[in-house]
Amino acid sequence: MVRSQEATITDAERPGPGDQLWSVFEFARRYRLAKREENRLLMLYGPTASLHVLLANAQRHSLIS
Predict the structure, then answer these.
(1) Who's near 3: CB < 8 A, 6+ residues apart?
(2) Distance CA 8, CA 5 (A)
(3) Looking at the chain, which runs of residues are DSSP E strands?
(4) Structural domain spans, the chain
(5) For residue 31, what are the CA distances in angstroms to 21, 27, 41?
(6) pLDDT, tens digit (0-9, with 9 covering 90-100), for 11-61
(7) Can you give the pLDDT at residue 14?
(8) What is the pLDDT of residue 13?
(9) What are the alphabetically sorted keywords of the record (predicted)?
(10) 10 Å Cβ neighbour count for 15?
């Protein structure tokens, strides 16, 4: 039995009527995320997610250590 990704999304993460849906690829490019972080977001949410969810869960790693 295969579970759809829609079934794994909680009600808190499901976009509401006023939420903007963004392409994860476009979000990663605009916010200059590393490819690894882009792939992590793709695995979590698929190709699109609400802007609110992406901003809350994206992690940027500093280039200065």
Answers:
(1) none
(2) 5
(3) 21-23, 48-50
(4) 18-57
(5) 16, 6, 13
(6) 555 656 567 899 999 999 999 999 999 999 999 999 999 999 999 999 887
(7) 62
(8) 59
(9) Plasmid
(10) 16
What is the pLDDT at residue 16? 62
> How many residues does the structure list for the chain?
65
**Residue 5 tokens, joined:** 């990704």
| Separation CA 28–CA 47 (nearest Å) | 11
Q: Say if residues 59 and 31 touch (Cβ distance below 8 Å).
A: no
Residue recorded with tokens 């808190």 = 12
Compute the distance between CA of residue 3 and CA of residue 52 in angstroms, rounded to an integer: 25
Q: Measure CA 55 to chain center.
A: 8
Residues 1-16, mean pLDDT to the nearest whole number: 55
pLDDT of 4 > 70? The answer is no
